[in-house]
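Trying the structure run again after the queue cleared.
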Amino acid sequence: MEHPHLPTTEAAVTAIRKIADDYRLEMTVTDDIGADQTSRRTSAGVFATLDPDGSLPHEAFVELAGSPAVSVRVFPEADAKITVDRVEFHDVPRDSVPSFLRSVYGGLAHTKGRFFPPGQWLIVPLPGDETYKELIADTTLTPWLARSARGS
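Done. Tokens:
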């Protein structure tokens, strides 16, 4: 399914803010602006705030209070890392972030376990055929993860 295009980090933060309002969640945002501030620009020279193409990269870290604990790091390269109760989803396209969060807060996200190979996964389905699945590395599930378990 085609997601609404979010051309900038600020557009993604605005979309996340709308979701926080819809689900009555408190939200904090930390912005890192400039090539010398963003986490993926480790090779930026001293006081180099612009990318070689002259653009000003913008990265944001968003924390949403409540259950589950969710944080979103939106990168200038049009992707994000979403952490749901200590389970990290890397390389989520920026355009998919709002649908991902609506799935988590709307009750569609769930855990699933298997005996062989052993493990628990957090599964986040999005509209259409897009699904994110990540292994839960911690052996003790948080209360939210335990509540969202579904049978095999």
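The CA atoms of residues 71 and 83 lie 5 Å apart. Worth checking whether this holds up in the mutant runs.
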